[in-house]
Specification:
The complex is a heterodimer of chains A (307) and B (251).
Chain A lengths: L4 E10 L2 E11 L4 E5 L6 H9 L6 E6 L2 E2 L4 H6 L1 E4 L11 H11 L6 H10 L15 H13 L5 E5 L7 H16 L3 E5 L3 H7 L2 E6 L2 E7 H7 L3 E8 L5 H4 L2 E4 L5 E5 L3 H12 L3 E8 L3 H16 L3
Chain B lengths: L2 H14 L2 H23 L11 H32 L3 H4 L5 H28 L9 H25 L3 H17 L12 H7 L3 H14 L6 H25 L6
The chains are: A alpha/beta (307), B mainly alpha (251).
The structure holds adenosine-5'-diphosphate and magnesium ion (MG).
Chain lengths: 307, 251
């Protein structure tokens, strides 16, 4: 099967600034793919190249097998993009904006689908409101709608939930999950790592224009072997043997310890018992994506010799 | 609905929805010129034999309105879209370079021609203007508005800020239109400026357009039309290549 997105050794420089330094990745059809990285890592630049909004300095990019430069019309027809910036055309209402966007793709008689999009994005009551009069969250929904007017097989969302309230965020993810279930390939960037962890089957992490990790979400989580223990003890002190494991003293007096693996939990208990310390409260936790992310970013920093 | 038609329609709506600003205002400005210049200069000038100065002025003002508004439409639309970022809505879809160019071009021409017709019709209320060869007038209006519409596309792509576009307008478009014989026949100019005028394509647009009304002009209408049309086509090609290169649009 043709990959939904193929990025092959893509680089991009803005004047002297290198935003992407030879990025390669493939997203298969039907995947829910996450693109993570700190601000300025190059996520938006990569998305812009895939969308044809920016031309790469080097390398090739394909969407559903179509080169984004040579065969730009077919590539763009296969792609829907929700841009990071909250842009809108102040001349039009929500429905007009969607109709016009649909017209750009040369689609006839698209009203039924447009009404469906309006309904799914909870925009029915605002359909005839001018774009100018919408709140930020509403504008974001319209942007999602505009990316879907042509039912693209591949949908890319650049921080769709930045600055959006919790309720809308959840509604938006429900909708996007549904699109994914219906067979659409989803690529997203987000700052909310717990969202990425819950949604994405595979994740690429970018730093300074380089891919520093590319794996399934599960493998990334497993890569971080070990676990965390949060403890409250009586008396409120730890034996010296355990002090080295403490990563943090939490509010309320709990200790947070990092262990290499689950077996160490038993040793920990034995050490405490031997010291006559009673456990009040204890919680064993798996590392989450945030932990993995921080670790990978730190490691990548030292490998490249750049902080 | 094709992509081209939609973009053209959107560009049409963009000025039509605010027609007080985009159509009525320039018509009023032209009428004010007519009032002031006709009143102050009527006794001094008879440019062509048998043609009253007030009548002489009308086609020039109408054509100036056509040209300035064609330029204003494509240039301000593109620059504003770039500034607000909503240009992505037309950059993301599979519009071909040709569709993109033609939609902006034709909407600009439409605005220019609508305003020009408005000036002409409004002026008819005050002045009797003959219409000797309407075909010549129309041909020059179409080619001239096309030239300025294409120039507006270039200026809009080039400008990142309002003042850059304003500079383009104030230091290039305005002088060229004022020095093109809107208010006078270039035969009344000193030799240096007469020669200068012959290098100004806008002079031929005005002159050929005026021929359509009075059946007389400073140069042959064939010469005007040839120069205006070839300038239009050459500039169109340049604009098309600029769009295709992605310059400042897909950087
Ligand atoms: N149009 C541009 N001109 C100059 N530099 C840019 C431009 N767009 C992005 N950059 C630079 O490229 C790098 C990557 O930016 P971006 O792709 O926006 O990162 P992200 O989306 O991951 O936050 C940054 O250093 C940014 O300053
Ligand atoms: Mg970004």
């Amino acid at each position: 099967m043709t990959p939904a997105i193929q990025v092959d050794r893509v680089s991009k420089s803005f004047g002297g600034v290198q935003a992407l330094g030879g990025v390669s990745l493939e997203v298969q059809q039907g995947e829910f793919f996450g693109l993570l990285g700190p601000n300025g890592a190059g996520k938006t630049t990569l998305i812009s190249i895939i969308a044809g909004l920016t031309r790469a300095t080097g390398g090739t990019t394909r969407v559903m097998g179509h080169d984004v430069v040579e065969d730009y019309r077919a590539a763009r027809r296969a792609l829907g993009v929700v841009p990071q910036e909250l842009v809108f055309d102040p001349f039009f209402t929500v429905r007009e904006a969607l109709q016009i966007q649909s017209g750009y793709y040369g689609i006839r008689d698209n009203d039924a689908w447009i009404e469906e999009v309006i309904e799914h994005l909870d925009l029915t009551s605002k359909a005839d409101t001018n774009m100018r009069a919408l709140s930020g969250g509403m504008k974001r929904r319209v942007l999602v709608g505009q990316a879907l007017v042509h039912k693209p097989p591949v949908i890319v969302l650049d921080e769709p939930t930045a600055g959006v309230d919790v309720e809308l965020r959840q509604a938006l993810w429900r909708f996007i999950r549904r699109l994914n279930r219906d067979g659409h390939t989803i690529v997203l960037t987000t700052h909310y790592l717990e969202e990425a962890e819950a949604l994405c089957g595979r994740i690429a992490m970018l730093k300074q224009g380089q891919i520093v990790a590319l794996d399934t979400t599960r493998n990334l989580l497993n890569r971080h072997s070990g676990c965390y223990v949060v403890l409250r003890v009586e008396p409120d002190r730890l034996p010296d043997a355990l002090a080295a494991h403490v990563t943090e003293r939490l509010e309320g007096g709990a200790y947070r310890l990092a262990l290499k693996n689950y077996d160490e939990v038993e040793n920990l208990m034995a050490t405490l018992r031997a010291a006559g310390i009673k456990v009040h409260e204890m919680e064993v936790m798996q590392p989450d994506l945030e932990e993995v992310f921080v670790q990978i970013m730190q490691k990548a920093g030292t490998v490249n010799g750049k902080p | 609905m094709t992509g081209f038609y939609t973009l053209f329609y959107k560009e049409w709506l963009r000025f039509w929805k605010v027609k007080v600003q985009t159509i009525l205002a320039p018509v009023l400005t032209a009428l004010l010129y007519l009032l002031v210049f006709a009143h102050t200069l009527r006794s001094h000038a008879e440019v062509y034999p048998g043609v009253e100065y007030t009548a002489f002025l009308v086609p020039g003002l109408a054509m100036m309105a056509v040209l300035q508004n064609a330029f204003a439409n494509s240039s301000s639309s593109l620059m504003q879209s770039k500034m607000t970022g909503n240009i992505v809505f037309v950059l993301l879809p599979p519009l071909s370079h040709r569709e993109f160019f033609l939609a902006y071009l034709l909407a600009a021409m439409a605005r220019g021609l609508v305003v020009g017709a408005g000036v002409f019709v409004a002026a008819m209320a005050f002045v009797d203007v003959p219409l000797a060869n309407p075909g010549w007038a129309l041909a020059h209006a179409i080619a001239g508005s096309g030239f300025m519409g294409a120039l507006g596309v270039i200026a809009g792509i080039q400008s990142d800020k309002v003042d850059q576009l304003a500079a383009f307008q104030n230091f290039i478009i305005l002088p060229l239109t004022f020095l093109s014989g809107v208010f006078y026949s270039i035969h009344s100019l000193p030799p240096f400026w007469q020669t200068f005028s012959h290098f100004n394509p806008i002079f031929y647009m005005i002159d050929g357009f005026r021929y359509g009304f009075f059946g007389q002009a400073d140069v042959s209408p064939w010469l005007s039309l040839t120069i205006v049309t070839s300038s239009f086509l050459a500039l169109s090609l340049l604009t098309f290549l600029l769009i295709r290169s992605g310059y400042k649009l897909r950087h």
